[in-house]
Specification:
There is one protein chain. With about 575 residues, the chain is an alpha/beta fold. It contains 21 helices and 16 strands. It has an eight-stranded mixed sheet with strand order 3-2-1-4-5-6-7-8, sandwiched between helices. An eight-stranded mixed sheet has the order 11-10-9-12-13-14-15-16, sandwiched between helices. α11 crosses α12 and α20 runs antiparallel to α21. The protein is elongated and about 85 Å long.
Length: about 575
């Protein structure tokens, strides 16, 4: 990593507006050795930023930021970044005030996310000096930033914004206004849905964040992201999108509105969904240890199915030390499953994830056969057959007969009722949902779903078993979609709806994915994710979610149905939204 050299010999950089974005940018500039002048009319904000700046590390010789409510202190700075709220009149007024203090030729940068940079430049009388600095979330070391010069921006100002991005340790990205707006709307809708889920009491905010981080690979949970951006900022952006589009998915969640009204604005105010100390550091509350009272020992494990999920789970259980029997529909499928698991373990050895001795021991612990009577000696059975309610109920009726009393019976469903299969077993107290994520050997999350009849001892056994596999367990009541899919699929559906927008071109899919990946740090964009899940699987999940929730955001996508009818299934057959292009 390149050593940061203090910029103390250069004129200061001004930051006007010390909300979530302005504060984060000022502290980042300070941490990279820049002299900084911060301006805000809110004295509490100035005091807060001053405290946090003192606690933040900076290279030796870097002076503390100058924090003031007097914009005249900007006289003599080499560049000014405007980071006030996203309101045309407010931004125009602030930029005009800056232009009165700073002489012509001083680069002026605006962090607007939705307004025309060129129009702001004209309105403040300095179009040649103004450029945009697109920050998708409050900036952090290595985070994305997009310079946005206009056709009126001078070459000197365009160079200044790029130099600022580089010297602040940010990563310059190229996204574009349209894709950035689409990506921002998709992410805002996801954040709003997460607030709704919490307000319903379905899951605590920590569990929602954990599930989305580990289940979707997000860089931060949606509620943690809300705190970073600022609840008031998100509320204003959602309100504007709702006003402009009429889409009720953007109607701010009542809980979000109440929190903003109460002054709980996130990290900048010291409290939102999480609590923060005076330096802005997250205050981590010590949670209670998982209750494993009544957990029964699990030695032998059964896995029903021979598809990718079943094979992945069998690999995980065998590697964790459990003698495991996999039951397939035919001897050929059973043998193929064993070969697939052995090959996966060999690849894990090559990557240095598994030792040769551990691989050999796991292979020796794994057996595969046909016939459910092989589960008679198992302590826990994991069903991973087709996501079909009739198939699952029939299977559980048999499992209830062949498995010994007290055997924990689990289903990997995430879109069907756990209670329905539990009833079919004739022993609902022994049944829970264990939603592993694909690929099971890699993904750390398991959603543990309990039906009304699930016994506490059954839950405790399943919880302890998953923790023994090295998984992070998030618990939730039995409901279609659980946490992850109930939040993920409205987001994916909103992305698919972009295909129906007038003027959508043949690069919309690629550009939207790139904007989500580059701007927000998601591991893949929505269209690539749909290909990965499988377009047919995604459509089936959409149908089940809509049957349960009956809300517009869960309505199955006509475009997705047409793709599936045409035989485009995604990565599995190399024909999908992005697969052919990758």
């Amino acid at each position: 990593m390149t050593e940061q050299i203090p910029h103390t010999s250069a004129a200061p950089i001004g930051v006007v507006g010390l909300g979530s974005t302005g504060e984060a940018l000022l502290l980042l500039l300070h941490a990279t050795g820049h002299r900084v002048v911060g301006v805000d009319t809110d004295l509490d904000a100035l005091a807060r930023v001053g405290t946090r700046a003192k606690a933040a590390p900076a290279p030796d010789g870097t002076p503390e930021p100058v924090l003031t409510d007097d914009p005249r202190r900007l006289r003599g700075v080499r560049l000014v970044v405007e980071a006030v709220p996203e309101d045309r009149d407010v931004k125009t007024g602030v930029l005009r005030g800056i232009a009165e203090v700073c002489p012509p030729g001083t680069p002026l940068l605006t962090t607007t996310a939705s307004l025309s940079v060129a129009r702001l430049g004209i309105a403040c009388g300095r179009p040649a000096d103004l450029a945009g600095l697109r920050l998708f979330t409050p900036p952090a070391p290595g985070g994305p930033a997009e310079p946005v010069p206009t056709g009126l921006t001078s070459g000197e100002t365009a160079a200044a914004v790029r130099e600022l991005v580089a010297s602040a340790g940010l990563t310059e990205v190229e996204v574009g206004a349209g894709p950035a707006a689409d990506a921002g709307a998709l992410v805002l809708g996801l954040l709003n849905s997460a607030v709704v889920l919490c307000s319903e009491g379905y899951a605590p905010h920590e569990d929602v964040d954990t599930a989305m981080r580990l289940g979707c690979g997000l860089p931060a949970g949606p509620l943690e992201t809300l705190d970073r951006i600022g609840l008031d900022t998100v509320h204003a952006a959602l309100t504007e999108l709702w006003r402009r589009t009429g889409d009720t998915a953007f109607e701010p969640a009542p809980l979000l509105s109440r929190m903003v009204a109460a002054g709980r604005l996130g990290r900048k105010s010291g409290g939102g969904f999480y609590a923060y100390d005076e330096t802005g550091a997250l205050v981590r509350e010590r949670g209670d240890a998982p209750d494993e009272t009544g957990a029964r020992p699990v030695r032998r494990v059964g896995v029903l199915g021979s598809g990718a999920m079943a094979r992945g789970i069998a690999e995980v259980t065998a590697l964790a030390g459990h003698p495991t029997v996999l039951v397939a529909r035919s001897a050929a499928k059973a043998e193929a499953a064993l070969e697939s698991v052995a090959g996966s373990l060999t690849r894990a050895v090559r990557r240095g994830k598994v030792t040769p001795a551990a691989r050999q021991a796991a292979v020796e612990r794994l057996d595969a056969t046909t016939g459910l009577d092989a589960f008679a000696g198992c302590d826990l059975v994991i069903e991973a057959v087709a996501e079909d309610p009739d198939v699952k109920r029939a299977v559980f009726a048999e499992l209830g007969e062949v498995c010994a009393p007290g055997t924990v019976l689990t289903t990997t469903t995430s879109s069907l009722s756990v209670a329905a299969v539990a009833e079919a077993s004739g022993r609902p107290a022994d049944v829970v949902g264990l939603h592993f994520f694909n690929p099971a050997p890699v993904m750390r999350l398991v959603e543990l779903a309990h039906a009304p009849g699930s016994a506490p001892g059954t839950l405790a056994t399943a919880r302890a078993f998953c923790r023994g596999l090295g998984k992070t367990v998030v618990e939730c009541p039995d409901r279609t979609g659980f946490i992850v899919n109930s939040l993920l699929f409205p987001y994916l559906g909103a992305a698919l709806a972009l295909l129906d927008r007038p003027g959508a071109d043949d690069r919309l899919v690629e550009r939207t994915d790139a904007a989500v990946e580059r701007g927000f740090g998601y591991p893949m964009g929505p269209f690539a994710l749909l290909d990965t899940i499988g377009l047919d699987v995604s459509l089936a999940i959409q149908h089940r979610l809509f049957e349960h929730f009956e809300t517009p955001e869960h309505r199955p996508s006509d475009a997705l149905a047409e793709l599936v009818s045409a035989g485009l299934l995604g990565r599995k057959n190399r024909r999908g939204l992005r697969t052919a292009a990758r």
